[in-house]
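Board work, copied verbatim: Glycosyltransferase 2-like domain-containing protein
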Amino acid sequence: MTTTTARPAEPGPAPAGAQRAVVVVPTYNEADSLPRLLRDLAEVRGELPSGVVLDVLVVDDGSPDGTADLVRLHPAYGGWLGLLARGGKAGLGDAYRAGFSWALDAGYDLVLQMDADGSHPVTALPAMLAGLTENDLVIGSRYVRGGRTENWPLRRRLLSAGANHYARSMLWLRTRDATAGFRGWRADAIHAAGVLHGDADGYGFQVENTWRAERSHLRVAEQPITFVERVAGASKMSPGVAGEAVALIARWRAAEIAAWLRRHLLVVGLVVLAGLLRVPFLHRPLTSDEAGFLTVAAQWHHGTSLYGDYWVDRPPLLILLFRMAALAGGEVPLRLLGTVATMVAVALAGLLGGLVTSRRIGPVLTAATALLLLDAPLFGGQIVNGELLAVPFVFAGLCCIVPASRPDTALRWWAAAGAAGMAAGLVKQSLLDVFAVAAALLVWELLRRSRRDAASQGAAFVGGALVVLAAVLGIAWLYGTQPAGIWDAVVTFRMQAADVISSQASPHTAHRARVLAVAWVWTGAPLLLLVSLLRRTPRAPSPHMPLGWLAATLLGWEAFGVAAGGSYWLHYLIGTVPGTVFVLARAIAVGIPVRRCSAALAVMALSLAITTNAVLHRAPRQPAGVRQVSTWLTAHDRPGQTGIVAYGQSEILRTAGLRSPYTELWSLPVRVRDPRLQELTEVLAGPKPPTWIITGERGLASWGINPSLAQPVLAARYKQVERIGTWRILRLRQDPQLARSRTESASPAS
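↓ predict structure ↓
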């Protein structure tokens, strides 16, 4: 290809501090439209910001209609107008790159690009040049407030909107008008974005440079313009050009994903390992909590209690998640749901590490920490419960709060953090970690920055939280669960339960507290925290985020949550995982030696290996006789029969396929809501009593429960038919359903 270059004549010595700008205009058969554009450019040269000198470079690809000759004959040719004549059509992107390269070699400070067809308003040039004083790239945008299109047919509008949506969605772009061709660049930004080394030759050039600019963290602004249909000539857009752009965008995205995977291969491996470690537990018998939540979720409808015919002190999003598992088949889908939650949490822990620290090892160490704790049997990690399903939402909220703490960050990060935090609380009401961290950060914002900014950020956070709350409450309402009932279950009841536990707790509670403390120590989590809090090497902390203050708030809230739970079950420790990961990320950010973290993680890995091996080589842990009782009932019950277990052990009823006419499936709600067993007595003495009653050695008696009302009814209406270990199985002396069935079968045929 033969290239002839005609450089504009030197404009003379520029005023001190003046900036030289050039408009690059690619042409091919634009002889009809170019004269008008050059006339408008000549007029606007007198309206530029002070200290800016503007030239024009036409890049012509051998137009057969004489476009290049028209430029050579223009009076300004050789003055402020120049021509880069090329021997043949090589594409829009190639023409722009040639013009940009020429402009950079000529020493221009600012480089603008626009079409020759009159669709870009020349009158917007002064504003775009002014915008380049504070930005690296200014885009003349049709899709920001004040921008619009004019005289476009519907087909063109749909094509443009669809192309922008495709480009922005595929490449995750913030820019509203990613395909715009009217732009202004600072010269150093062209180098920084690698514009001269692009791939696209057609209209994908515009999308590619938007993508490159954003990935290079350039300051990109959009200037609203009115885009009109071309005044003369024919459009160069064709299906082939559009297809090239679509394919290139897909290729760029695939390359980004591949590069991300290569960069984060270790984190991806840890995510996969987190899932594989749970595979051996997929077919283990359900625990009491798992069986109870599945039972509640499977029958959730407009019923007589909070969730259908049963009551439980859990928020509705947890029941919705369990309902998904119940509808998908029950046990194995539930364990798969827990596996997905663990893998997502590990991935988000890695992301959090990358957001908090710039050290490349950060995401690997934080993801490894999450894996070692979430899969730890001593944390109850193999059980699918509220803590496990809520932790991914906590990590998601923390991942939103970190970028939200940076100056001039869009409020959408605060809204997303509020949404994730509310979702976590609607799965497990005590996991309000995101709210605690957001409150701590807003207090810091109030003290260090603008009250107005803190107020708007807080409003965005609350707004995001309210959207999720309204959505979940709306779904629960459709199932017959009222907001007042949910408040009573997750707030009022928990306060009452705390009083009952503290005043009437059995010796088992103190024992569980000691076991929980030993389990926490054995996993190595305290060692990792100690290593993370040791004297650090000097490194500048983040000026935008009080990492230490946020870490202390998060750990403090999680410690309070474990203590306030009162019952000290092992799975309470799952709630401490986000805080442990955040403390580690903070330690990495301020320069802790990697070898310290690695040593602590090695100890944790050894603990995980030992405990997992021990769990896998022993029978699933269940209270003595539970499996035998379930097997006996399965062999002896009949369709339509019901049962009650005093108290808890819902897996017995679920395995036997029995429904319970009593609304309480757990022991703590019985102790708080029905301690004198008045409701149970009404069920036993009513017209539809349960067929089977399963009790322990002491019958209906237990700590915090007075059986004096129910015990006489039990003795009168039930008889013991089997004893398995400490379990007693009682059957209704006269099953009304069985009696009715016998009566009907004995009556003469009509």
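The two ends are 103 Å apart (CA to CA).
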